[in-house]
Structure formats: C-alpha cells, structure tokens
Known about the structure:
The protein is an alpha+beta fold. Helix content is 38%, strand content 15%. It has helices at 3-8, 10-13, 19-32, 46-62, 134-137, 190-198, 200-206, 221-226, 234-277, 286-300, 304-319, 405-410, 460-469, 471-475, 490-494, 503-547; strands spanning 89-91, 97-99, 110-114, 130-133, 142-145, 149-152, 163-165, 173-176, 180-185, 229-231, 355-358, 363-367, 379-386, 395-396, 401-403, 421-424, 436-439, 444-445, 449-454, 479-480, 486-487, 497-500. 35% of the residues are buried.
Amino acid sequence: MNADRLLALYEQVAEAPDAIARLRRFVLDLAVRGKLVEQDPADEPASELLSRIALEKARLVKTKAIRKPRPVSPFEPDDLPFPAPLGWAWTQIAELGIIGPRNEADDALEASFVPMPMIAAEYGVANGHEPRPWGEIKKGYTHFAEGDVGLAKITPCFENGKSTVFRNLTGGIGAGTTELHIVRPLFVEADYIVLFLKSPQFIETGIPRMTGTAGQKRVPTEYFISSPFPLPPLAEQHRIVAKVEELMALLDRLEAARTEREATRDRLTAASLARLTAPGTDPADFPANARFALDTLPALTTRPDQIKALRQAILNLAVRGKLVEQDPADKPLPRIDEGLLPDAATPFDIPSGWQWSRLRAIGLLKGGGTPSKARDDFWSGRIPWVSPKDMKVDYIKAAQLSITDAAIAGSAVNLIDRDSVLFVVRGMILAHSFPVAISKVPLTINQDMKAISLKIPEMAEYVLRALKGLTPEMLARVQRSSHGTCRIERDDYGDLLVPLPPLAEQHRIVAKVDALTALCDRLEAALTTSDTTRARLLEALLNDTVSGAVDPSTQAA
C-alpha cells in the first residue's frame, strides 16, 4: 500500500473528473479491505470480539432485554469479495449487535426526530435532528438511540451513501424516517460500521439486490443484516477510523484548494474577457487586449463552460465591429431597412460604415408546418423536413425526417431556399440556447422554426454568426407559456436589430470568427485529452496504492 505516494502526487490528478469524490470512495474501500493501516499481531483477534458479542447478546436475551434474534442466512465462501487480513473475521451485521431496536421512554421526554434530509451522504458529517416529545414520534417511525447506526434503504438515498451514527440525540433517543435499517452495535466501533455501509463494494453489490418499483426501490433487510462483513480487531477498528478521519480532512483541504483555484481561474477568465468586451474600451487598445486574452485564456480555460463563454465573447466582439479592423475603402451596403428611423434606439455603438437593420428587413421571413402524418405519400421523400432537434450543426443538408413533393403541394409547408438562415422560435431549448443554421439545400421546416431568405444571399455566413452573437438579446425576448413552453413572438424576433458591416468586412469577420472558433475547438479537444490523461493517471495511482505494480510517473502526459 502506498497511500502517502498517492496523496503526494495528487496535484497531478486534481483536475481529473470526479477526482476528490473518487479518492473519498477509494479511502473507504481501502479501509474495509485492511489496506489503510498496518495490522498489529498484538491486537485481540476479531474472533475473540465476536465471542464476546455473542455472550452479551445471549445475556440480553436471557434477561429479556431483547428478543431472541431470528436466524440469518449464512454466506458461502464464494460470496466473500476479497481475502481478509490476518486477525480479521468475516461475519454479518446481524452478529454485531441488535437489529431494529425499540425504545421505551416516557411520552413527555424530549427526544430527537430525524427526517431523511438530515442524514448526510458524506462520511464524517453528523446527522441533524429536531427536538420533539417522545409521545409524538414513538409511533409510525423508526426507533434508534445514541450510538446506533442507520442505513438509508430507499433509492436514491442508498446509492448516494446515506448512513450515519446517531449522536447528540436529545434525551439520548430518537425516531425518524421509516426508510432506515438500524443496528445497535455491541463492542464494535460504530464509525467502522458506517465506513462499511458507505464503501463502494457494499453499495455497488446492494444496488442490484434492491426490490420494488422504479423510484421506490429499497434495500432488503436480509441484505443489510446478512451481507459478508469484514471485521477487524477492535484496536484496528479504532486505528482505521482515525486514519479515515485524517485522510477525509486532508481531502477536505484539497477540495477547498481546488475550489479556490477554480474561483481564481474564473476571475481571471472574466477579467480577460472583460478587457475585450468592455463597452467603453478604446478601439486602439483592442489589439493588445485581444493578444493578452488569446495568450492567457488557453491556460485559464479548464472547463467546458469557460470555453463556451469564450466562443460567445468572440461572437459578441464580431457583431460590435471589434474583431477585425475597418477599411475605409470597403464599399458600404445599400440601405437595407428603409423603415428604421435614423434616431432609433440601438443596443450598442457600431463602427462608421455599418448600419442597423431589423431582422425582418434583411430578407423574407418564412414559417413552417407539419404535413399530415396520415398521408404516407407525404413522407420519406427527398426533401429534408427540419425540426429543432436537427439544429445541432451550423449547416443543414439533411434531417431526421424528409417529405415528398406531394407534401409541399398538398399542405401549407413552405420550401425554403438554399442559403437561408434558419432559427428556432419555439421549444424548451430556448430556455438556454438559440439555435441558428444555414440551409445548404432546399428544404422545409416545422412550425417551431422560422427561416429568412436574405435580400443579399452573400450575407448568410455573417448573419449566421451575428445571430449567434446576439443570442443574449434574442433569449431576453423569450416568453414562457403557463405550461412552461418557451417561444419568441414574431414581433420580438422580427424587430431584433442586427448590425450590418460592409460586405467585404463581413467576409473578414467570418474568417476571423472561424479562426478563433478553431482555437476554441483545439482548447476543447485539449481539455478532453487532458481530462482523459488525468483520469488514467488517477486510475494508475489508485492501482499503485493497492499493488505498487504501476509507476504513475510514467503515466503522465
């Protein structure tokens, strides 16, 4: 075992997906396998501990303090998931204490009520409780007392690792959710039992044993009380619990440090983007700010959401005329929106030589529809029928469904010209995204979409990127129906103001956006590769911690 080496090399894998959570589960796994602390031959063997527990249970039965336990199905040697260390014993939770104990107390006694939300999934987090008179909670709830161990048996609480040692109970007793299995340990370290209940092996083995309907599956009592349980000597139990607490505290600090690193990266990323997008920025400063951002962002973008923000910032700059230099020699576009008043309120300043136009004025807006599904001759034709679920790419040549010429002739579906700009105006995707694409073939669209056939078809590539850059403005126009459906009304999307540069500058903007988007693609690919590398290194380190067979230093890329 080489846990110290694992933690020493943690910084190499700290950014791996789920690194801290995996390390926490790994610590628990090592603990119940006897690989976290050394065994001491001087410790009283677990077999002797089991004998003392058996004698105590017999005494309690004889004095009628407890009922005689029901027999438990024994496990077979083939059921054992791993070999136990010297001095340990394989047993069952039923042999370690009292299952499902009951409390006897005066109704007026202040006790603790513990609902499921007050039981933590994380190891080492104490349960919460609410003081209540015992008479209010003694019926219809699960009983427990100070030091008892509880396991959440219902999905998803079991899968999430909800189990606890009940402590600091008002009046020393409590009752709570009926979705608990309870054991009252005898001479066994309660925290060690919780280690076992939270261990990956116990949970993963238990999941397929759950019974009941979806959403109401439960861990059977039999699994809880009769599963093979690796019992160390009592002295080793104490050492294991102490070591786990030490390592979990260390992982808490590592997690806090990681959170702080992420917060610092977020601040630096935001500051870098702010230097580009600040409304009052002097255009003369933009090239230097852009170089700074592009030099620093690759090191700062460590999450997909940060790269997404960078993509949006690039598009945002593009529609503001800050991405490429203006050329006085560029031929201005002809006036497109004759109905737009010169003093109309505009969302931001644009360079000289540009013009504003409402979306409805730059081309002909067309809607969509759905041909009758009862007409077999309308479907499986040669003409793509595009719906929002097809809008995952920038260029549309095909769709999941297609229609025939007869469908166009026999329904209200419009044929959309090639090089039209398509966008979604209804659907839950508008809660967070505004899909836009260009038609590369003549096609049709459904009723949740609109298309605009441009007055100047050569503007299609720029309009695509401009609408992506104006996504925040478009999403601000989204309305929700009473049942939650998102939509953008015709006047709202039709009145959207689109900044239009000269055609030559549009081409330069498109080229620059594509170049910077390619950089984002490379950052994204590098991030994926880095995540994979870190995950592999973490796996190597975990294996090395157990076996020492792998040299993690040779696994790093």
